[in-house]
Amino acid sequence: FPSHDKNFTYVVDCYSTTVDFTSTSSVIPMFNDQLSYQWLVNGAPLAGQNATISYDYNQPGPGSMTLIVTS
Q: Tens digits of per-residue pLDDT, 17-32?
């Protein structure tokens, strides 16, 4: 069974193309695992493994962000 809850939130300023993403993932305390993060923008991996990132899509319109969390 899964040992952690995977999720993230985002904040969008309607006057900017930059979006702030924050992982809200957590581990079940009894497992005491450390989490690692991989963010994918439009399917391409981003540098860094932080729980919080800021990404500028450089243009208005649809875009995707995926968070892969492992422990």
A: 888 889 988 877 766 6
